[in-house]
Amino acid sequence: MRELKITPIKNGTVIDHIGNGLALEVLRIIGIQSLDKDSTVSVALHVRSGKLGWKDIVKVENMELSPRKVNAIALIAPTATISIIREFRVREKRVVDLPDRIVGVLRCPNSNCISNQVEPVESEFEVAARRPVVLTCAFCDRRVDDFLHHLA
Amino acid sequence: MSLYGRDVISIRDLSRPEIEALLESARRMIPYAEGKKVMHPLADKIVAMAFFEPSTRTRLSFESAVHRLGGQCITIADPAVSSVRKGESLSDTIRMLTSYSDAIVLRHPSEGSARLAGRASERPVINAGDGAGQHPTQTLLDLATMQEAFGTLSGLRVVLLGDLKYGRTVHSLAYALALFGAQLVVSSPPSLQLPEEVRDQLEPLGVKIQEEEQLHRAVRDADVLYVTRIQKERFPDEADYLKVAGSYRIDAGVLAAAKSRLIVLHPLPRAGEIAPEVDATPHAAYFRQAFLAVPVRMALLDALLTAPKRARAG
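ok -> structure tokens follow
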């Protein structure tokens, strides 16, 4: 019998093909402290992958990701795939896809940008380039290509 | 193509034909800006001047432009005595001004503030400088001064000298000059070079930026020498400012090797970058540039606030 490194989940989300070493950042985006306290969160680090060489995997019970969290994962882990599990079966599987406009996911790295001040507005970025991903602030035009350090 | 009712936040909000139309309109506005002719297309209009940062030329030239067109101004000139002091957000201040005026001219210390104001306002917003960001009307008057001197912008060799990092006027200007096919030469202290974001915006326009550290070599072949002040107030650390303060100065010696038709521009105020002796030379165009602020801003206000005449039905 094949040994499973992470046990299957009944209902929830599996985020697979996360770039090696990025699982903890994905967990940060998911916000595990906000999950149902009876949910199990499984993390596999440094798993062999035919596609990536090495990858990370995150499984979270009883949770489906909001579009905003999917966008954040798309920035940090663009190779990730997201599977929605119901009754132990994959009901939906998709690759993460970066939209043209990303709202409320990152902080503008320009500390003098109006979006970092006390204004009733969310941060907003436009995709300037996709390979590699470069974003520009919709308010001040500042470029961002280092997303890990600027998650909102 | 009409600018009626639009925001002007960045020079990139305007197409080349729109900029050309504004420059042509500004040229026709000159006798009105000088008070030699009179017209009042804004007779029923109120323009709010929301200045959250000190300004002399920009605010006064906008106010002069409104008055020359027959309009009225309401002004926040000192945020220290306004509701901002009480903690009001810019969004709320703009919403209030929207209900009191037909257009808002905004200067604010934060980058992106004008874009935010444009979203909050139902009336046209003109960016009169947002931090180290954009200052599109300064660019228009810079272009107007070059156009008046040379009759064209295409092919001009323009040297941008000084603080190209924090000097917001050069960011907008570099883009517009690239749009018009000018040649760009940049000359600045190493710590004050043109930011990557600005270079990225220029790249699709196919412009090649030449770097020239030696001032006399940069000046030798130039048609326009655009000098900027080092923006002391935008340096996070004063020690960094002191390292570059006074690192360049235009005087008769520097201009001795220049072309006879070279013009020297400066968005003003100057703080020692241009010696007073240059004022008396035919190269000095910065006071003409300061005057052209009025007809250029008249042209823009007229375009934003005067409904285009409908074409007569055939």
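Chain A has two domains: 12-95, 101-150.
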